[in-house]
Amino acid sequence: MYEFGVLNWTILGTYIALTLVLGAFIGKRVTSAKDFALGDKTIPWWAIGISVVCTYVSAMSFLGGPAWSYKEGLSVIAIHLNYPLVIFFIVAVFMPFFYNNGLTSIYEYQERRFGKASRITLSFIFLIKQALSSAAVLYATAMILEFITGIDVMYCIMIVTTIALVYTVMGGMAAVIWTDVIQALILFVGAFIIIEAVWNGMPMPMTDVMVNLKEKGMTDALNTSMNLSEVTTVWAGVIAMTMFHTTVYGGNQMMVQRCMAAKSMGDAKKAMLMMGYVAFFIYFVFILLGVLFNAYYDGKEFDNGNTIILHYASEYGLPGLMGIIAAAILAASMSS
Description:
The chain has helices at residues 5-27, 33-38, 45-56, 59-72, 83-100, 106-114, 116-149, 153-200, 206-215, 234-251, 253-260, 265-296, 308-316, 321-335.
């Protein structure tokens, strides 16, 4: 276990306190069920766009992305090539339909079109699916926080859940969106500190590093193999993941409800477009980080690849870095 220290606890505690204070402050402006579900329709499109991005960039992305590309190389980016195509389709087809019908929930339409039984059934299926997905993210986050802070997994689960529950109940959708903005800032600060440190801390010039990575096939981003057993091919990204991401961004309540909080149809579209084009570069950063780690550690095997960032941060020795990483992981989990 890493010795967390006073400075790191201070950073983590400050982040938690800031999140709760923001939730309480926004909560004072909630005066109706509509305000709770959609805010007061004054949230800027860029904040909504950041929130949508954060919803899909979980702690698993922050830790699992580099772990995956550490072994597979830049070809991992192929599964994200579909974002511009998917988001353009969502903005052109799904978004006008949901926004113009004044929906708070996509399941409202199910009831209007097919009756209450349809709405209840599909809502129940969504909640079960989301509970299972959130449980996986939450458990993975708790294990990482235990590794960093030494707090038992069970208590980590309770802490993360309670914090997210409190600010959501106090401030509704507006609190969720604005806390996501803070969470995004912390997440990306942590990621860019790590990538800058790795980039400048290589044991040889970057030109030599890139030559070595190319020789190992780690820089081959476009894998056009027709082998169906390979996951990181262009075909998997453009065909299979296009269909998957269409369901995620076009029919997932977590995404749609955020966009419905926009001031206008134009703002809702801009928020979703921001997500589609920014997310690709965010994932590229995480994937590039894994490739650089491969060069830094010379492909060394780790018992758990998801802890590569944590191992590096503890070795790097920058005061407060582990506190930022812990806050970033906590932020990524709560935003999801």
